[in-house]
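Suppose you are handed only these lines of text.
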Amino acid sequence: MALCLWLIVVVPVCSWGQRPEDTADSGVFQPQSALTDMEFASVSTYRGPGNTDPRPNNKLPILLWWSSNLFPHFPGDTERVDCAHSSCLVTSNRKVQLYRRTASIIFYGTDFRAYEAPLPRLSHQTWALFHEESPMNNYLLSHSVGIRLFNYTATFRRESDYPLTLQWLPSLDYLLKPMAVPLQEKNRWRQAGLAPVLYMQSHCDVPSDRDRYVQELMKYIE
Ligand SMILES: *[C@@H]1O[C@H](CO)[C@@H](O)[C@H](O)[C@H]1NC(C)=O
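From them, the structure of the protein bound to 2-acetamido-2-deoxy-beta-D-glucopyranose can be written out as follows.
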């Protein structure tokens, strides 16, 4: 019987997103026009490898992060991002919602609420979903009418546009490096009465009913 170990790591969003209260006070002093704000030369920049996009900030497409608890390009609320093939401005400033240049709106799955979605949808804008937490957090997204609202998805599903199945895996090496405990030692522990399989999960009673599956599996493991 193969050793099966599922280890599910749940990282609270607040540890790497930006909480709205961090920005609430400083927002009072921002210029009225978000666009002016974003075209300041001081917008900080992530320089990706090999990027040669010559466009100035005021010509770049804008990606709007809609979910207020999540803006991975902190500490500011706006940043120029240079990827390998082109550049864009990313922002969490909702004032840009109706801009022509705002090409896509990104939603965080756990926080997505239909009643606060930016409606009506503009025909030139796409919606993108970033959903890396438990499906239990938002049942709407487990139904095709819900998930089909999004033109691009990055989820735990292998079939999504940018699957996040292995996102917390540090490297391939991590999976392939030699087992920590030699087989002889494990066999000794088996003879001493220890179980052959360890199963770990982050919570119980999930809708996939995996608890019952594991209970059934236990019948076949000596
Ligand atoms: C994005 O998805 C919506 C809803 O399914 C659809 O109406 C729209 O045509 C799509 N836009 C693009 C550019 O694919």
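What can we learn from it? The longest helix spans residues 183-191. Residues 1-35 have pLDDT under 50 and may be disordered.
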